[in-house]
Every structure is written in structure tokens, then in C-alpha cells.
Amino acid sequence: MSLSLSPPPPAHTPAKTMTMKFKRPYSRQSATVAALALATLSITAPIHSFVPIVIPGSPPRAAATSTALGALGVFVRKAKEAEVRQYCEAGPPDSVLALLQKIKDSHGVEGEVASAGELQSLLTKRRGTISVVAEYKRKCEGSGFLAEVPGPEILSPVFREFGASAVAVLADDRTGGCTYDDVMAVVGEQEEARGEVPGPLPVISSDLIVDEIQIAQAADAGAVAVTVTYGVVGAEKVAQFVQDAKVLGLEVIVNVGAAEEAQGAVNAGASIVSVVGVDGADGKYAVIESLQIPKGRKVCTVANILAKDNKALEEVEEAWICRDKGFNCVWVSDALYKSGNDPVEHPGAIIRSMKAKSSVKYASPKARSGKGEGAREYLGDILM
User: Fold this and answer.
1) How many Å apart are CA 228 and CA 226, to the nearest integer?
2) CA dist., res. 167 & res. 156, Å (int)
3) Alpha-carbon distance 223 to 198, whole Å?
4) Most confident residue range from 46-55, 73-82, 144-153
5) Pick from 31, 197, 204, 341: CA 20 to 30 A from residue 166's CA?
6) Inter-CA distances, 174 with 15, 49, 80, 254, Å
């Protein structure tokens, strides 16, 4: 282990709920069937079934997403370091240790700047289009565990069938209610689609990375990429983690919250930069607007869409605006779990709507009246 830790402050251990264990891989059924099942569930389930549970005494739910991890500060970083230390003391699997040793053996060897990988290419669509990373989680920021959220064996095929380009799993139990077991479950379900159309999606392990052993864990679980938060680890560690991941064939998505961090990430070798914790398309664009990219390199820009505390589906409009401003991809998380009993608001509908060629000039996700310019198209039409 590379961690050198002082004793961590006492940390509250969140209650364990909704622990999901899978006795066998997801059966080879059409993803369409799973999607229809989810839509049916959306119609028949009570409205609270997909609404976050508000824990008494907890602060109001802020607009946030999984990658708001970077804003959690030094105390959570220390808690994560303590968690990683406990994992190491418990004895990681031999497969993880072998991958970790491969990383350590590469230290001291000068690495090349990472070239465009398969995930980066997949997320970088032609101008005027947008790709979507759908994040699986069981817990929303500031609101606790989700009520009756479908398991990964249900949502994973929905993400695929409705057009997501990749699936992320918030593999941090404290903030997302998931672990690396969930990463493995999603990878396993996606592999069930091998040879089918659409085929399996790449899986991203979204964790608060503070040590290279977490990169080894992600690779062992079958992920093709990890997330690293610039504001948590700094430029030097970002550069090191980019090289560590490359040794194992993984790509790195660097989360940034300011223009200085975005430039620092690119200078450290990042080829995928995700703007997180910034509200509004204009604010996100300001982070990458002046980005200086070295000659011969390509950088994929991702806009992390924050969930709104309303049912207006403003997140879809924000995705369209981010697309029009030049972002290559949007990362959507909490907004996927806002739906109630409206069949056009389930996760698949939101993903497909974000990918639609519509514009806020001509359409509104929630236009219902049929009046006014551009009111002819709304979310239900896009879904169909």
C-alpha cells in the first residue's frame, strides 16, 4: 500500500439497507423486455417508489450528482483512506494484489501521455450530437437510500436498450450505496448482450480514488475506466493515477470543478475531463471554454448534469444546451431516479430524450398544451 495514514477521526457508519446479492448472472432475455418491465413498474408502482427517502433531520436535498464527491472535502478523503486501509488489512483477493503489483512494477518507468482510448472514442460523437453516461446508484445526495430502486440486473439492460454509451457504477458505499460487487454485476449483465444489438456497454467504476489499489479493484471487477477527482488528489496524483490505470488498460475520467482544474487535468495527461458540481450549462461551459489542448491530443469533455428539485425535466433541456455548446457527453445520475408513475419519465426515457436532436428553441421536454412555437414535440413523442 502507498497510503501513509494517521488514525482517522471517528466516522459514522451508515446503516446497511437494500443489500443485493445475485445468485446467478442475469438470464439471456431481450433488453427490450426488461425495459418494458421497468416502464410497467413506473406505471403501476406508487409515486414514492422512485422518489428519494428523506431522512428526518437531514439537510434539504441539494442539486447534486454522484461526482459531487470532489466537494466532500478532506474529512471524507481521510475516511476513504481509512476504508482503503481496512480493505488492505483484511487481505485483498490475490487477483487484485497481482494487478496492484503490476502497477507498482511500472513505477519509476517514464510513461507516455495516454492516447485516445476506446471509451474516449465511444463518448466523442460528431458535433451536434451527445453521448450519455448513465450512472447506477442506490443512494442520492442528501436524501439517503432510494425506495425500491430496481437492481442492476434490471436497470443495466435499460441503459443499454435506450441508448446510453456507457454505464457508471458509484462504487462508494458511503455516497452511492454501491460497491465493487455492483460493478461486477453490471459488467456481467452487459456481457450477456455479447453478440446482440445493441451490444454490451463499457462499465466505469466511479469511486473516490485515493490509492492505486482501487484502480486494481476496478480492473479486477471488469471496469474499463475509473474516475479521479482533481480537487481531492491534486495534479501530481492525477498524473500518477492516469499512468497507473494505463498499465492495466484502463482509462481515467478526471472530475473538475473549475477552469484551473480542467487545465491542470489536461496538463497531467487526462484525455477525458468531466465538469462536476457546477450548475447550469453556462457555468459548465465556462470551465472548459478556454481549455488549451496540446497539439496532437484530443480531449473528451463531459458535462455532469445536476438533478433539479422539481418535475420539469430541466435536466433534459440542460443536456441539449451542453450539446449545443460543444460538450461531447453528459453524465446523468440522480435525474434518472426522479420518476414517479409517469411512463415517460423512467430512466430509459430520460436517456433517449437527452440524446434526441431536439433543441430548446423548438421543443420542451414537458410541453403538454400543444400551444406555441415548438410545442409540437415533448418527451413522450421523443421516447416513441
Assistant:
1) 7
2) 8
3) 19
4) 73-82
5) 341
6) 10, 22, 9, 20
